[in-house]
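Researcher: First entry.
Model:
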Amino acid sequence: MTKVGFISLGCCKNLVDTEVMLHNLHTAGFEITPNEEEAEIIVINTCGFIESAKQEAIENILDAASLKEWGKCRHIIATGCLVERYREEVMNEMPEIDALVGIGSLDKIAEACEAVMRGEKYTSFNDKETSSLGGDRIITTGPHTAYIKVSEGCDNLCTYCAIPLIRGRHRSRKIEDIVAEARDLEAMGVKEINLIAQDTTRYGLDIYGEYSLARLVRAITEETNIPWIRLLYCYPDKITDELVEELRTNDRLLKYMDIPVQHISDSVLKRMNRHGGKQLIIEAIDRLRERVPDIILRTTAMVGFPGETDEDFTELCEFVKETRFDRFGAFTFSPEEGTEAAEMEDQIDEQIKQDRYDILMQTQLTVAEEKTAERIGSVLTVLCEGYDRIAEVYHGRSFADAPDVDGRVYFKSASKLVPGQFVEVKILEAMDYDLVGEAMEV
């Protein structure tokens, strides 16, 4: 049985694609190995969102190529966003690659493996906007948590973003298909599902004629008993009153929302082609905090966008300081080929971008330290994820912590716990973005 190893890069949406491909290969009779050095075929699911992601993809391809020389690897297959975006260039400039599989051809991954095993070069780039959405998966995030991709593509057309070029127009999955997937995950023991898309709040507009995320959440709540449902990638201009009310009243919909604002200066937001300006963003945040008092808000911001002045940047820093986001991430502008922003005048010097990033993150660190300190003495429900034998502590996440991007809760317990178990933890200490505590004994 041929062993296949996977390297999945980029966002959690890309990870879902990897999980679909893993299932397809397993069904086709291939053996999946987590050890790249054992793999005869290595599949690299690439990211191509920004320059640093492209460099990471190239480095991983070259690392895999070295295994062709001294390891068991005989073939390399590349798929994902970088491949979709730079088809001919990737194959021409990286002859180490034996096959390319585009976004619309993920269901061809087994066919690609079979072709390279016969010594053939293989490429498949079917129409990404007519390819099937969803599919059976092998979950790689552990037995207790999983992502559900509710839609594909994006219609927002932000001037800096290549996603619409790579992934195509926005396409929602049907509610009944998503609910069926949630039921399957529940049967596997999943306790937390994270609803994701390029723009989760746009869900349903294309097939139901209206924003339908709240309707979807209600359907999942009614048809499953999954304890935690989390929303990621919610755009402020599409947060409906219905969705806010669902957050307020649905006990299983976590009081957590990820809202990627990107900036707060109206002049920068306009050049970014973001939908809604400063006032809309502030009103959306105020509405959420007023109607859902305990809500955790996460956001991301971009620094160094073309034409961003010192005044624009100062305005962003003040906004972050005053708004006091519970969770925050930032990144520097990357001029992506084919986007409008890449051709704009007044590009910002790379050192200035980095300096602004450092200042912004330091501003948030002060807020984060204060926010975590406020948790000392409280009791949080924590989803246990594992045990650190070296530190001799368990670790997990509370409702306030999304997988991979937020902090963790580290705690001791007199009782033996297993991953996927919920436990009440009293918080005793704060460490930057993480919390330390002790399990409450029943």
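Researcher: Second entry.
Model:
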Amino acid sequence: MALRAASLFRPDPFTLALIAVVATATVLPCQGTSETVFKWLAVFAIAALFFLQGARLSREAVLSGLTHWRLHLLIMAATFVVFPLLGVTLHLLLRPLLSEPLWMGVLFVCALPSTVQSSIAFTSIARGNVPAAICAATASNLIGIFLTPLLVTLLMRLHGGGISFGEVEKIVLQLLVPFLAGQALRPLIGEWAARNRRILAVTDRSSILLVVYVAFSEAVVHGIWHQLPPLRFVILVAVNGILLGAVLLITTYGSRALKFPRADEVAIVFCGSKKTLASGIPMANVLFAGPAVGMTVLPLMIFHQMQLMVCAWLARRYAERAEREEEAPKGAALSAPGA
């Protein structure tokens, strides 16, 4: 039992890699010529990541699940409506507790699409509706390419900021064009991408680590750690916890109130409560300028680890419940007269 509890709170390898990159950027930030080189590498890495994402995303997976529209509508509402509303509410109630760049990071988390791999994996572990999870997570990422920048623009305008035409142009060139190119070439390279999924996963994660290193290097040079005392970091973790807990409660009891079966409830909970780190960090690098990027992605990195830990525990609870439900009819049959 103690070993299971320890494994629950152990960071996943990618989170440890992110921490190592942040530590490296703190001690050895890239500056001068190396900063210019790394920034161009990050631009290329982001374009390559979204190109490969476009090549891998199956339009058939999205279209095949459209008949289950109530489930997908609830997941999309949780991802792109409930999350932003909760973020804005927390900002209004707790604004003095965090700096504006950190709040922008929290709101950015709220605008992101769902994850794909972990949403499907946890739905499978919890014995939920896996085909629906595949469809919902894929559709969320597809829609997020277009909707997340619009949501971020709206949230920034609500809080006195905005995105310029130059930043919109960057979004189109660095995110949308490579993604559409990948989709266009999917008939040619889609099977190759599927066969080499593990190798491409390493490439994707390496791209994210590169972007994090560049972002935190610039933030360190501009004094990020002087702007983030320990108490503020604890408050940031608490805000992320409130956000995740609220969405888990809303998706759980919302799906039950709407009379979804248990398998569909599992898919709604795990797809509707997740936020993608894989697309989020590259998007942040495009949407936010200069040293603000490091502070902005910090809430996402915290939320990423938090959602993995909480959902791992929740998936096991759902699985145990499913096992009890399966065993109950067997026990009833054995105890019946003449059995």
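Model: Note on the second entry: The mean pLDDT is 80.
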